[in-house]
């Protein structure tokens, strides 16, 4: 599985020149960062595409070190395993954020399982709160109607 993930990420990175997801990383900071493994890890944990490296590479031009790509991929692989976990799926579901497309197929099922459990719990909680609010509104309306009926007599 490790070899498949590594090959998948390398193929994806090589095949795609850009990504539709904007990078939230400053090129000035990242170009000077000698720890590209850390950069890759942070990108993955932010739920960004592996292709974010291409944007960083373009921004850095000549300032990027030759081994940046391989160390970035190593960090990204570590981070994407954590991001695509059941536990993170739960967290993302609580926050209502779903973008499992960044997760490789092998990891996506666990992430989505966690997400679905949390999303369903949030939905039930929201429905319960809405019913309570509806009951309160009905109670207030009934009280108002009784007070109005008492005044007219």
Automatic annotation (TrEMBL):
Biased composition (Polar residues): 139-153
PROSITE patterns: PROKAR_LIPOPROTEIN
InterPro entries named among the record's database cross-references: DUF2799
Keyword Signal on entry: yes
Assigned keywords, A-Z: Signal
Protein name as it appears in the record: DUF2799 domain-containing protein
Compositionally biased residues, Basic and acidic residues: 128-138
Location of the region described as Disordered in the Swiss-Prot/TrEMBL record: 128-153
Residues annotated as signal peptide: 1-17
Natural source organism: Litorilituus sediminis
């Amino acid at each position: 599985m490790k070899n498949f993930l590594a090959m998948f990420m390398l193929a994806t990175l090589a095949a795609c020149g850009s990504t539709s997801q904007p990078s939230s990383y400053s090129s000035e900071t990242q170009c000077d960062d000698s720890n590209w493994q850390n950069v890759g890890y942070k990108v993955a944990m932010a739920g960004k595409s592996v292709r974010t490296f291409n944007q960083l590479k373009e921004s850095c031009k000549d300032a990027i070190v030759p081994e940046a790509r391989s160390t970035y991929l190593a960090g990204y692989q570590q981070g994407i395993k954590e991001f695509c976990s059941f536990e993170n799926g739960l967290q993302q579901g609580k926050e209502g954020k779903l973008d499992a497309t960044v997760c490789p197929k092998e990891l996506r099922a666990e992430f989505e399982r966690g997400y679905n459990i949390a999303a369903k719990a949030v939905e039930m909680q929201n429905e319960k709160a809405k019913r309570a609010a509806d009951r309160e509104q009905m109670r207030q309306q009934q009280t108002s109607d009784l007070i109005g009926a008492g005044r007219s007599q």
